[in-house]
Specification:
Blueprint (H helix, E strand, L loop, with lengths): L2 H6 L5 H14 L4 E8 L4 E7 L10 E3 L4 H8 L4 E3 L2 H5 L5 H6 L4 E9 L2 E10 L6 H7 L3 H17 L1
Antiparallel strand pairs: 1-2, 1-6, 2-3, 4-5, 5-6
Helix pairs in contact: 2-7
């Protein structure tokens, strides 16, 4: 489904989340795709969307870690790239689960709205997958990602 078609779907924000996943898949490729929302005041994040809910469900919160990933993505607002399981293991304690799903590379794209990082788009695939060309293509995902997070926030406010 296209993003335009997803906007008309009453199943919000999930229709837009699925359309965003389709756009990610066609532009940069992805095996595991999740969207994490961030609450800086409380120091927690939670998964708003997952294309593998058995392994990565959309329930619960987890504390935001204090590591190089946090500094790069949430503070400096830069995309994080890891193209090997060793690079992933350096920042993510669930690296064994990630590897068990056939993923050994990732990009985490910060979603910034009105100056605040409200979440991240997380794309994982096979080792070495996220080349410089794919990272350039990922820039086109920032606006659709922001739209998806805005719809999610609007749904939370009205629900």
């Amino acid at each position: 489904m296209t993003m335009t078609g997803a906007l008309a779907d009453p199943d919000q924000p999930f229709a837009v989340f699925r359309a965003l996943e389709d756009q990610v898949r066609s532009s940069v490729g992805v095996r595991l795709f999740t969207l994490m929302q961030v609450d800086h005041d409380r120091g927690v994040a939670w998964r708003a969307y997952s294309n593998m809910p058995e392994a990565y469900p959309t329930s619960g919160e987890k504390p935001i870690p204090e590591n190089i990933w946090t500094e790069q993505v949430l503070v400096r607002r830069e995309t994080f790239v890891a193209n090997s399981i060793d690079e992933i293991a350096a920042v993510f304690p669930d690296h064994a689960l990630i590897q068990s799903l056939g993923c050994e590379s990732c990009i985490n794209i910060p979603v910034v709205i009105a100056g605040d990082v409200v979440g991240t788009m997380n794309c994982l695939d096979v080792a070495g997958h996220y080349t410089p060309e794919k990272l350039r293509a990922a820039d086109a995902l920032i606006v659709p990602g922001a739209l998806a997070f805005l719809l999610s926030q609007a749904g939370s406010a009205s629900g």
